[in-house]
Amino acid sequence: MDEREFVRPGRHASVIGLGTWQLGADWGDVDDKDALAVLEAAAESGVTFFDTADVYGDGRSEQTIAAFLSGRPDLHVMVATKMGRRVDQIPENYVLDNFRAWNDRSRRNLGVDRVDLVQLHCPPTPVYSSDEVFDALDTLVDEDRIAAYGVSVETCAQALTAIARPNVASVQIILNPFRMKPLREVLPAAREAGVGIIARVPLASGLLSGKYTKETVFGENDHRTFNRHGEAFDQGETFSGVDFATGVEAAAEFGELAPEGFTPAQTALAWIVQQPGVTTVIPGARSPEQARANAAAGKLPPLPPETLAAIQALYDRRIKDQVESRW
Fold first, then answer.
1. Is the pTM of this model over 0.85?
2. Are 120 and 161 in contact (CB under 8 A)?
3. Distance (Å, whole) CA 47 – CA 132
């Protein structure tokens, strides 16, 4: 699989990575055996970038990655985690002492002395404009606790504020065929600044797989049930902020655009990989089969111009008005 460089810290990552929210919580139950099997399938398929967070399963996702990698010293996987969502979401909590404590916990969970990449996990908007916050993150680098740092964001405005910071290594942002706004300003700014782009929620919480109908029911402990209207966290995290009924209808149309040899999900991932400025895209997986199919999208040929144009037209017609004013 192709790899692309994070200029800071000078590490390469597969264009298709693995998001591990599903291996921790909020997507229904996944047992430890199945979680390890997903990691194994991804690694064997050429994935060299795992994304996690200290809040996924309250550390379970980090610990599962550590258990897997400890048994596979032959692998060279870049691991990115996130911090900040285990406390009240007020700017006053984003201080050096807390950063050190959160980092200590993640390093224990991951079984490492230094984390490859640490990202602020969708913090309150004022955090992105705080010199003290980024000075504290620079201190973590100076103390050799982390190799580099980035941010995970909800909005394009937050992303642009972060990109203007001189030492930000990456911005993680929702980007998929149902969330195109970052293409206009965020990706060009990141390319110019040498900031990596990690594309998250690439399948719009599974909508773009084309497997759901309006009658689909998700488990009570699945965020696609309990956060459909933003009850627990930002609504944009669930179905990319698209109304479920609209999303199902648009996803059916999207599936008809998949070229021969592509599944709908692979079409969505291939579309993201083709966007200039994307470093890696991090679909999740709940089974080895899903992990392998996602990774295979990184080895498919580019989508033809007529498919790209049809995807843009679908977005403009069905999705744009629902999401662009909010994120």
1. yes
2. no
3. 35
